[in-house]
Design goal:
The chain has a single domain, classed as Rossmann fold. Helices cover about 40% and strands about 15% of the residues. The chain has a four-stranded parallel sheet. It is globular. The model has no long low-confidence stretch (mean pLDDT about 95).
Length: about 160
């Protein structure tokens, strides 16, 4: 109950501004954490070993960076988070609503490291199209999604949880 109460005060916009804008979101060197995370994800998915119909992202938070390279290898991506405010933030981004967090520097960087010459807007469009469900999750329950996902997922992703 105490943990739940603490999370209820979570502000996704403050979190995004604090962690995903400069100086923390610094793309000037591969030594910084943001480009490092994006490169690790790009290399993982580029291997071709992780692919399929459905990917579940466990604990997405209000972020989409972890799905950028994955969207080329799955037909459907299911984002999940414990907090309704994070799911709402993801939904606003997925629908392209004005005023949502600007992920374009992340998308541009991923397109650059993937090296296919793809316009970043195309990757953004593809991720929005493949992010089909945003569901509540509680990993402390025996069935975290409340019911089994149909059809079952081919892979799970969890970044910084």
């Amino acid at each position: 109950a105490a943990l739940r109460e603490g999370y209820e005060r979570f502000d996704p916009r403050a979190y995004l501004q604090n962690n995903y804008l400069p100086p923390r979101a610094d793309f000037s060197s591969e030594e910084f954490v943001v480009p490092w995370k994006l490169r690790c994800l790009a290399e993982t998915f580029a291997s071709g070993e992780i692919r399929g119909r459905t990917l579940i992202d466990v604990g997405s938070g209000p972020t989409i960076y972890q799905l950028l390279s994955a969207c080329d290898h799955f037909e459907e991506i299911v984002a999940t988070d414990y907090l309704a405010v994070n799911r709402e933030e993801l939904g606003r981004w997925a629908r392209g609503e004005p005023g949502t967090f600007d992920w374009s520097p992340f998308i541009q960087h991923v397109c650059k490291i993937e090296g296919r010459g793809e316009p970043w807007q195309e990757k953004e469009r593809r991720l929005r199209g493949r992010l089909r469900r945003i569901l509540p999750i509680d990993v402390h329950r025996p069935d975290p999604l409340g019911a089994p996902l149909r059809p079952p997922a081919d892979a799970l992703l969890s970044a910084f949880c």
